[in-house]
Design goal:
The chain is mainly alpha-helical. It has 3 domains: 34 residues, no CATH class; 52 residues; 45 residues. Helix content is 65%, strand content 3%. The chain has a two-stranded antiparallel ribbon with strand order 1-2. α6 packs antiparallel against α7. The longest helix has 22 residues. The radius of gyration is 23 Å and the shape is elongated. It starts with 5 loop residues before the first strand and ends with a helix.
């Protein structure tokens, strides 16, 4: 039998198709069958609860996809996650984190010229986003 399914004529003269069944496949199937479509109010309440737990809008989107089978929240409900939680600084936060990592690396490796270039470009990008958000 082949490990990932398919036809193995040597092991089975009938040429049956084997399907690899794992716990993950069974579990995800049960979750998909058990979920129902949430109302807009319920979905907004879930998003607010996840935000209170400290999740970012990106992580909230992943949690909705994995736990509640909501693939694209904006398409299904017509509103963005960032509009519900009232935060639009996800890009700013991500760039600040990247800048901190680059500064830490450049502090240890001062002769790393590509990192120096990336550091100046990231700092410039951060200033541009801060200027945009301040309007």
């Amino acid at each position: 039998m082949r490990p990932f399914g398919g036809r193995d004529p040597g092991a089975n003269p009938g040429g049956a198709i084997f399907i690899r069944v794992t716990f993950k496949n069974i579990f995800s199937g049960l979750v998909l069958m058990a979920t129902k479509k949430l109302t807009k109010k319920e979905a907004e309440d879930i998003i607010r609860d996840l935000y209170k737990e400290g999740l970012t809008s990106e992580k909230i989107g992943l949690a909705l996809k994995n736990k509640y089978n909501i693939k694209k929240f904006r398409e299904e409900y017509g509103i963005r996650i960032s509009e519900i939680i009232g935060k639009k600084d996800a890009d700013l936060r991500n760039i600040k984190q990247r800048l901190e990592k680059l500064q830490k690396h450049f502090g240890k490796n001062p002769k790393d010229q590509p990192t120096k270039r990336r550091l100046t470009k990231t700092a410039s990008q951060l200033r541009g986003i801060e200027k945009y958000l301040s309007r």
